[in-house]
Structures are given as structure tokens and as C-alpha cells.
Amino acid sequence: MRTKVKHSCFLILIQVACVAVGLWMQHQYVVSALETQLEEQTLSRLERSLQALAGRAAGLPPGELPQRLQDLAAGTALLNGPDVLLTDAEGRVISATEDEASAHSSRPVAGQVVTFSLTAGADPAAPGPIRGTLDLPDGKHLAVRQALAGDGRGYLLAHWPRAALRAELDALSGSLPAVGAVALFWTCALLTIAVFVLMGRVHDSAERQRERSTAHVMRQAQNLVRTRDAVIFGLAKLADSRHGETGAHLERISAYATALANAARRHPKFASRVTPAFVRLIGISSALHDIGKVGIEDRILLKRGAFTCEERGRMEAHTLVAGECLREIEQRLGSSNFLQMARAIAMSHHERWDGKGYPQGLSGTAIPLAARLTSIADVYDALRTPRVYKPAFPHEECVSIIREEAGRRFDPDLVDVFLTIEGTFRDIADRYRASAEACAPATAAEFEPAGVEEGLTSAEAHAQASPDGTRVLSALE
């Protein structure tokens, strides 16, 4: 917007300067034309006056004209102010009129020699009035000279001061600057409006083109993101299928993590960190939480009984396998928010708030936020869906277990967030129940872990066989 205004102002200034120069040149032309017209009118008036005076003087006897010049001039109505001189052939003044209405006060007197200069191109031998100028003490005068009939009778000179002509010109052209200023103002106003309208149209056209280009790029980017997400989700599903997870497990994890992240945005502790972009990323990144299990041998991954210490250590190494795999992808493709979050989740979703998790034994806020969120989603899904060693737990029991683990396994603040939307988790679980039931084992006995004692439930048996031997959650690690 600033660039548009700068360009518009610069264009307006250039146009105003051009208009101002044009108006100044027009003013000079008008003044020059007025001056030329006034001179022409004045000279024509002098010619007509002089011709009338010469005609009246032609009938006078020689020698009477000097005494009768004033009377003859007064009787010539066309004079109306111009002074008239009677000179001999050498330009010496013989007689001069004395008109109170004359436009100048410095009149030549008898015996004074005046210089009459012909106008450029004038023929001194031409009959009738001849145009020229007189140089008098008060400045130049426009003048017309008429030779008197008869040899040696001299010349009649009618003249008018240029100063009077200039005063008349100033009176006529005095309003021109004001007219020019008004014209400049309105021209500038119209130019400004026109420029802003045109620039607005150009800007709008460019903006629409930019928006179309941006929309095209965004569509391409969205298509690439959707393609990436589909490929990632497909690979995650492929990896997930190796260890017999129930149907739609990844979809549920993604839905749980997204719902929990959305709720965390309203918590003051997480509001600044959980942005809309964070919520979108965790929805797809959480699907890669167990991608490292592709590196675990089938004999361990698919084992139905309790793990030995060596096997448990190998199973826990799936987090390191995932971290190394995603790190190599980052090195090849370059770092991105998606890869960073996916790596953090894959490596740290088995860490515990009290520091007793794996693989690094992180505790508290040292555990990445995305991993803390996914941990709650993963455990809830594991409790809520049937496994080979346990039936599906009711929603209320899952909520109770997660509440009890606040401050031990889970971030207590995130547990508080979970408790505000636990109904949403139940709805998500119910939505995918059909898929989960379709993938459930036919009988529990078929998948009982090795070493199950008679009279114990599968969950109790697995808990007894686990290193802790105290709670069902140990079987979910």
C-alpha cells in the first residue's frame, strides 16, 4: 500500500509540474498576444487619427498649420488623447499639441529634435502613414508619421507612450494569474482523482492477479501436503500392520491428539505454544509415533507372552530407531516443523513426567510438548481398545487411570485439559468402535500370554509377567 501511495504521489507531482509549466507558457503566450494586439490597435488608431488630421491640414495655406495644429487636433474626434507633432524634414519640432488628456507629461517642445525609427520592414517612401517609434525622455513611444502634401511642408507625427500601453496590458492581464491558479487547482484535483482511480484499478488488477497466483501456489502446496500426508499415513499404517494393532488405530491417535491440542490452546500455560499450525501438524505427526517398530524383529514384536529383560530392551529401542530414521530424512530433505515434531513424538512418547520412562529418562517439561500430548492419546487408545492380553476398558475407567497417573506418567496440566474434553475422546472411540471390533481377536484364550496362571484375567497375568508386576499400564509401555 505504501508503495502504491508513493508511486501515485510521484506521478501526481510530475503531472502537476507539467501542468504548471504548461499554464505558465500559456500565460506568457496570452500576455504576448495581448501586447501585440494592443500595439496593433494603438497603431491603427494613430493611423486613422493622423490621416484625418492630414486631410484637414491639406486645405490650409502654407505657414498657418503650426498656429492651427491645436485647433485641428481638437476638431478631430478620432485623436482622443494621442499627442501630435509637426516636424520639419530633419525631425525638428515646429509645433506640438497640448492635450490635458494626454497619456504622458514629458512633451517635446518647439525646436527640439526627435528621432523617428521606422518599424522593421517599413518603406520610408511609401505613401500614407508609416509606422515606427519615437525615443522621448519618458521612454519609447509608438508613433505614426504622415508626410504633408507639398514640398518642404514637413511631417505630422502622432505618438502614444509604451508605458501607457503597458499599464493597459497589466490591467487586462492582471486577472490571468488568478485564473491560472484556479485552473491549476482544479486540474490538479482532477488529475489526483484520475491518478488514484487509475492506480487503484491497476493495483486492484495486480492484486487480483497476485491473489490468483497465490491461490494457485497454495493449491499446489496443499496438494503436495495432502500427498505427503497420505504417503506418510500409508507408510505408518503399513508399519502398524506388522504388530497387529486394532483397526483405525492411527486414525484414532490422530483424532485424539488433535482434539487434545485444540483444547490445550485454551489453557493459559499452552496458549502461546499450541498454535493452529501446531494442531494441524500433530494430527499427522502423531501417526508416526510407533514408526520405529519396523526395525524390531517379528519374534519380539509379535510375541504373545511376557518379554525377557533383553527383549524388553530391544522393544524399547523402537523409539531410537524412529528417531534415527527421521533424523536421516531431515538431513536429506532439510529440517521442517513436521519432521521435527514427528521425531520428537516418535522418540519421546514413552517418556514419563516423573523421569522413569524411556529411552532418555526425560522428565517434566524436558519432554517435548507434542510427545506429552501424544502419550495421553496413545495410552487412552491402548486402554480403550482390546488387546491380546486384555479386553477394552470402559471409558470411565480409562479416564480414572489417566487421572491417577497425573504427575507420574503424564503432565498434570495436560491431564486437566484432557478431563475437560474426555467426552470428546469417548465420542471418537465410539465413532471407530465398529472398526476396532472388526479387528478384535475371536477369543481371549487364543491370545493369552505365555505363563498365564489359572484363575487370573489376561490383564492380571500380563501385569504379573511384566517387570513392574503391579499395574495394567506397565503392559502398555
Report on the architecture of this protein:
- The structure is a single chain.
- The chain has 477 residues and is an alpha+beta fold.
- It has two domains: 2-177, PAS domain (Beta-Lactamase); 216-476, Hypothetical protein af1432.
- It is 56% helix and 7% strand.
- Strands 2-1-6-5-4-3 form a six-stranded antiparallel sheet.
- A hairpin with a 2-residue loop joins strand 4 (130-136) and strand 5.
- The chain is rod-shaped, with a radius of gyration of 55 Å.
List the helices and strands and how they pair.
Layout: H1 2-57, H2 65-74, E1 83-87, E2 93-96, E3 116-118, E4 130-136, E5 139-147, E6 155-161, H3 162-173, H4 176-240, H5 249-264, H6 276-285, H7 298-301, H8 309-316, H9 318-333, H10 337-348, H11 369-384, H12 395-404, H13 412-420, H14 422-431, H15 433-438, H16 458-465
Antiparallel strand pairs: 1-2, 1-6, 3-4, 4-5, 5-6
Helix pairs in contact: 1-3, 1-4, 5-6, 5-11, 5-14, 6-10, 9-10, 10-11, 11-12
Descriptive keywords:
477 residues, alpha+beta, Beta-Lactamase, Hypothetical protein af1432, 6-stranded antiparallel sheet, 16 helices
Number of discrete domains: 2
CATH topology of the largest domain: Hypothetical protein af1432
- Ranges where pLDDT stays below 50 over 5 or more residues in a row are 439-471
Radius of gyration: 55 Å
Main sheet summary:
6 strands, antiparallel
Q: Care to count the β-strands?
A: 6
Q: Based on CA inertia axes, which overall geometry fits?
A: rod-shaped
- Quaternary status: single chain
Question: In the CATH classification, which architecture of the largest domain applies?
Answer: Orthogonal Bundle
The number of helical segments is 16
Arithmetic mean of pLDDT: 80
H/E element order = HHEEEEEEHHHHHHHHHHHHHH
* Strands side by side in the biggest sheet: 2-1-6-5-4-3
Helical content, roughly? 55-70%
Q: Work out the strand percent.
A: 5-15%
CATH superfamily of the largest domain: Hypothetical protein af1432
What structural category arises from helix and sheet content?
alpha+beta
What is the CATH first-level class name of the largest domain? Mainly Alpha
Distance between the termini: 57 Å
